[in-house]
Structure formats: C-alpha cells, structure tokens
Design a protein that fits this description.
The structure holds 2 protein chains of 2 kinds. Helix content of chain A is about 75%, strand content about 0%. By secondary structure, chain A is mainly α. Chain A is globular. Chain B is of the alpha/beta class. Helices cover about 40% and strands about 25% of the residues of chain B. In chain B, the strands form 2 sheets. In chain B, strands 6-7-8-3-9-10 form a 6-stranded mixed sheet, sandwiched between helices. In chain B, α4 packs across α5 and α4 runs parallel beside α6. The chains are: A mainly alpha, B alpha/beta. The interface between A and B is medium-sized, with 13 and 19 residues.
C-alpha cells in the first residue's frame, strides 16, 4: 500500500504560474490603477493652487503693473503668431469646405461653415494651443528658473507670498487675454476665408455674407469666448504649477517646461469635450 | 528658564532651544541649542546635508519646527500669526548663496524691492537710500550700475547687490547662506571683508552659514558646528580653537585651512 501524498504545508511555495502568465489578473488590475491616487493628488494640487491664486486676487497690494506686464506678454506678444495661424486656419478650412460643398454646387455656404467652425471650435482651441506653446512654456520656464535660483525663496524673505506675486497676475492675464486673442483669431480667420472664397474662388460675396449672418449667432461666439476663458485658466494653472514645483537644475527646468506644455495641451483637448457637453445643455445649437 | 529666555538679553539676540525638524522619515534637526550674539559675526559650520540651510530658514520663520523654541529679542517666534511673523521678519535680511536677484528687475529695482513692498515711501527717498547703499558698498563707481540687470553683473557684484538689497530696510540681523561658495580666492577675500565691514559699519548681528574654513577663521567672532542635526561645539573663536571637538578638528584639518597646534592660513 502506497502512502497518500502529504497535504501541502502552509510553508509550501505556491505553484508556479503557466509560462507567459507572470501576473495574477487582480495584480495586473492593481498595477494598472496604481498611478490613480497620484493623479488624483496631482489634480488636487492644481485645484488648490488655482484657488489660492484666486483668493489672493482680492488681497492688497494689487500690483497692477504686474498684471499689465503679463497681459502684454500673453496677449500682445502672441498677436503675430495668432494672426498668422488664424489667417491660414480660416483659409485652409475654407478651401476644404469649398471642395466638399462643390459636390452639391453649394459653395456659397462656405462663410457659414468656416464661421461656425471658427467661432465654436477652431478659434478657442487653436488659440489655447498656440498661446500655450508661446506664453505657457515661457511662464513655466521663468518660474522654474526663479525657483532653482532661490528667487522664489527671496520673495518669501520679504514677506511677499509667491502665489500672490507670481501666479495671480499670470492667471488673470491668461483668463483675460485668451478670449481677446480668440476673437482676433476669429476675425483674421474670416479674412482668410474671404481671401480664398471670394478672391481666389470668385464665390459671390453677398451670398457668402448673407449665409454667414444667417447661420452664425452671437451665442456661438460667446461659447467660444467662455471656452477660451477656461483654457486660459487651465494654461496658467498648469504652467505655474510646473514652474513652482521644480527641483534640481537646468535639466529639470527643461522637463518642467515640457510637462507644462504637454499637460496643458492634453487638458485643453479633454476639457474641450466636456465643455461642449455642458454648453450644449445651456446653449443648444439651433442650426440654420 | 523660559522666563529668562523671553526677556530681551543685552548679549544674546537669538536664542534657540531644543529645535527639532523632520521631513517625512528623515530627521534633519535633532534638538539644537544655540545662542547668537548681538552685533557679532556668528558662523555656523557643517558639512553638506547637515541641515544648515533648514536651520537658517527656521531663524527667519520660513519653516516651522516640529518642536522647540526660537527667541528673537526675547520673543518666541514659533507659532506666531502671519502679521506678527512678518513684523519679526523685518528685523532680518538675507543674503543668498548666489544672490537670488530678480532677473526681471534692474539693480535699483532689486535693491528697492523690500522698501516698495513693505512701505509707501516717496520715490525720492527710496532712490536716496538705494544710492547711499551703492556708495557704501563700492558699487557706485561701476558705470551705469543702476540700470544694469543681474545677468550683466559679475559674481562678486551680484553678491554686493544682494547684500545691498538685504540691508536696505536696515535689518538688525543679517543671514548669509554660504556667501563664498563658487568664488575664486580673491573674490572670497573681498566677500569676507564685505561681511566684516558690514558688521562693523552697520552694527548688525551676522549669522553666516558656511563650510569655508579659511573664511570662517578669518572673520568669525563666534563659531558653532552643526553635525548630524545637533550643535556639537560652539563658542568664541579662541575657545573653539583651544579645545576643539574631535569632529570639528577633523573637519577643519581636512579643509587644510587650520592645523590645531599650528597656525591659521
């Protein structure tokens, strides 16, 4: 009679997994969601920075010069690039619209198509991306450099709050100037559309204008401006957060700038979706 | 004991007792006891990572300790509110390791910054005080210095502009964070002279964080050594030299600046 195999003792090692299955499915799930608490904390830190900067807006001293300096940097400084990109965005959209509309011999709708695309989507998103590339990266670099050269600490030694002095003016400037630049983008984009459709393709200007006025409402522009405002707040918060939280040297300054541009761009595109959903509730699109 | 510390002392301007500070699991300060003498140059030496900068930030109330007390002119600054701590901070000026001048402001705007932020003074008075400091710190002879930006200044000049900015609000206590780091020997000697002259001319209490032993023995009135979060030796320069703690002895002799029983360089 052969002895039955002894039951495994508690100390016995667990049986090996089949080749190719190194992880338990639950372990994989845990690993997949491991960055989640960190991401939530990061989001929370951004929100806290935004709230602190907003609260400081109402406390003395107001330092108007810093606000105007930042507005000039974010707005006036970005004017050439916004005009250039705006013109060609309008022109390219018009060109594609004409090609599509010519299938139905309805090229006269080009003003309406380009106008509404610019007002609701292209102008706020492209303005945010362009200003992020120019001014958002500049903000992150400047604050990160100030941080690693102890200029931020120096502010504190003079009893000046760094969020009050550095973040609040940038936040306000971005929130004010992005909508302004968005409107500039709209106007220049329509000029681009005019050049392509009326001058280049000789579509009747009267019909283009009439359908544009018929199809595009002021509410479309308000929606675009509200989006640009949200994107401005997002850009300043991401850029300032990355700048003020840098540690190390020149390499980290570069990385902070990259993170600021990438995080702002991604957030703008994700936020755009949710803003459209929200605004569709409040400002439902009426069509022609 | 606490009563005695909470009175203004003629000799000791800052009195630190049992100061502890940790960052997560890392204990940086483990119970510091130290007195800073009024009107003298007090140098705190120690190796890298020993908590010198953390200690200095506590003196100005920029960091809160886990435990302990810091008495400045008899007032315990631990736990003070924003307004009260800002009042105490006005007694301090700080000279940073690399000056920490604001890149976007010129020399005059940098020096005037504390005055413009703290008071509403007429522009003429601010400019007079800035020009007086430029004169006293030998900066006025540099052509066009007032309109220069920090990037246009040499390392030594930046340090002096940083000192002028720290002095402009007439502080009683000046903190120097490793003032000679990164300077050549001649510039180091100039900075040492600047610290000595500032202490004598302006009558300020100087607290210098340093690991430059040659400078320390050249200008210190009092020396304290910070090692593994505690002060292991402190006293007047001669006292410390006469009976050095073994760690201090090793630290100083390794630097090559001084040999005990020998002579200072």
């Amino acid at each position: 009679m052969t002895a039955s195999p002894a039951p495994p003792s508690p100390q016995t090692a667990p049986p090996e997994l089949a080749p190719g299955r190194r992880f338990h499915p639950f372990a994989l799930a845990v690993r997949a969601f491991a960055p989640l608490p960190g991401a939530v904390a990061l989001f929370g830190e951004h929100v806290i920075l935004l709230l602190r900067a907003t609260l400081w807006l109402f406390r003395r001293p107001f330092r108007l010069r810093l606000f105007f300096d930042q507005m000039e940097f974010v707005g006036v400084g970005s004017l050439p690039i916004i005009m250039l990109v705006g013109f060609f965005t309008g022109a390219v959209t018009a060109l594609q619209a004409i090609l599509a509309l010519s299938l139905f011999e309805q090229q006269r709708y080009v003003g309406f198509g380009v106008g509404i695309s610019l007002a609701r989507e292209l102008a706020p998103v492209f303005t945010a991306l362009m200003i992020t590339a120019r001014a958002g990266s500049g903000m992150a670099t400047e604050l990160a450099s100030m941080k690693i050269t102890e200029q931020v600490d120096a502010l504190t030694t003079f009893a000046v709050n760094p969020v009050h002095y550095l973040v609040t003016p940038r936040l306000v400037a971005s929130a004010v100037m992005l909508p302004v630049m968005c409107m500039v983008f709209n106007v220049v984009g329509l000029v681009g559309c005019y050049v392509v459709s009326v001058i280049s393709y000789e579509i009747d200007f009267g019909q283009v204008l009439a359908l544009f006025r018929h199809g595009v409402d002021p509410i479309d522009y308000i929606e675009g401006i509200l989006k640009a405002f949200c994107f401005g707040v997002t850009m300043a918060t991401c850029a300032c957060y990355q700048g003020l939280n840098v540690r190390g040297g020149a390499r980290e300054v570069g990385l902070a700038t990259t993170r600021a541009v990438v995080s702002t761009s991604v957030t703008v595109l994700v936020l755009d979706y949710f803003l459209i959903e929200i605004m569709n509730v409040f400002f439902p699109y009426g069509g022609l | 004991m606490a009563d005695e510390l909470s009175k203004r002392d003629q000799r000791w301007q800052i009195r630190i007792r049992d100061l502890h500070k940790s960052f997560a699991a890392q204990q940086v300060l483990r119970g510091i006891d130290l007195d800073i003498e009024r009107g003298k140059i007090n140098i705190i030496i120690g190796g890298s990572g020993q908590g010198k900068s953390v200690f200095m930030k506590h003196l100005m109330g920029l960091l809160s300790p886990d435990r302990g007390h810091i008495f400045v002119d008899g007032q315990d600054i631990i736990g003070l509110g924003d307004v009260a701590i800002a009042k105490v901070q006005r007694k301090f000026g700080m000279v940073f390791q690399y000056a920490a001048l604001f890149d976007s402001l010129n020399v005059v705007e940098n020096i005037a910054f504390p005055l413009l932020e703290r008071y509403r003074l007429p522009k003429k008075e601010v400019l007079e005080r800035v020009r007086d400091l430029l004169e006293r710190l030998d900066l006025a002879r540099v052509p066009g210095i007032e309109q220069k930006y920090p990037a246009e200044l040499s390392g030594g000049m930046r340090k002096r502009v940083g000192l002028a900015r720290a002095l402009v609000d007439r502080p009683e206590i000046l903190l120097y964070d490793e003032p000679t780091t990164g300077l050549d020997p001649i510039a180091t000697r100039n900075v040492d002279e600047m610290i000595r002259r500032t202490a004598d001319d302006f009558g300020v209490t100087s607290v210098v964080i340093s690991h430059d032993m040659a400078s320390t023995f050249r200008i210190a009135d009092r020396i304290a050594m910070l090692y593994e979060g505690v002060i292991i030796a402190s006293g007047e320069r001669r006292e410390v030299m006469a009976a050095p703690h073994p760690v201090l002895k090793e630290f100083v002799e390794t630097s090559g600046a001084v040999h005990f029983g020998g002579r200072a360089s």
